[in-house]
Fold these 2 entries.
Entry 1:
Amino acid sequence: MRLGPVLVGYDGSPAAKRALQQAIDLLGPMPMLTVVVWEAGLPFDLLTVPTVDPAPIDIRAALELDQQLYDSARRLAEQAAADAGELGRTAEGLVVADEMTPADTLIRLAAERDAAVIVVGRHGHRAVTEVLMGSTTRELIRRAPCPVLVVGHDAASS
């Protein structure tokens, strides 16, 4: 049995909130991390997208936007930890830079922290969309170094 924390992948969506609730209800008093995966450098990626009439790259604006995105992710992680507190559990909010994909980032973090389980919410996408877009959940189930709890879509809340 792994001795590390429960990792709750959190993006602020109703599915993530259900996942947090289920982690608290089902997994008892285990240490918990609410993890927000932040897409570091995204503004720089957007600046390099080819366009018909390329605009000059404004590095300062990209840096400011990147900082705003990080701040937003940090606030979301803090909110997730506060939500856990309102549900009777102490959790640490954590922002982690996305180096490849959210699944890769959560898998790496789970291995580094010896996570007992990864908990994620399922967004209830249509089957065709799942096949075409790929699936973070599918990758987690396939490659995670620990069990993965997927909290299903609640049709009543959509």
Note: The longest strand covers residues 32-38.
Entry 2:
Amino acid sequence: MTLLPDILAYIKQEFPAEQHGRVTTLVDSAVIHDGNPAGPRCQRAALVGSHGSLEHLERLIADLKKDYRDVIVEGEYEVREKKLLRMQDLNQLFENKLNNIEK
């Protein structure tokens, strides 16, 4: 699978240059529980949820194999007032929403 341009741009923006190759390989080779490749939403959720940490990204990529929904929650949702609230829709391209990502 080839990564979408918005995902590649996000990797370049959020990770140190020396990690770009490893991050790209991890995200590009990510699979979900049934062995199918992880789609763009799951890839984006893993990247956002990692907060620029290679180690956290590795864990999230591994989590995709167990239950991709956990990774989507980590990337798209926040707990506020003891409630899980969706903060962003990672079905959308990063270019359409980079300014909306809360860090």
Note: Helices lie at 5-14, 20-28, 40-50, 54-66, 68-76.
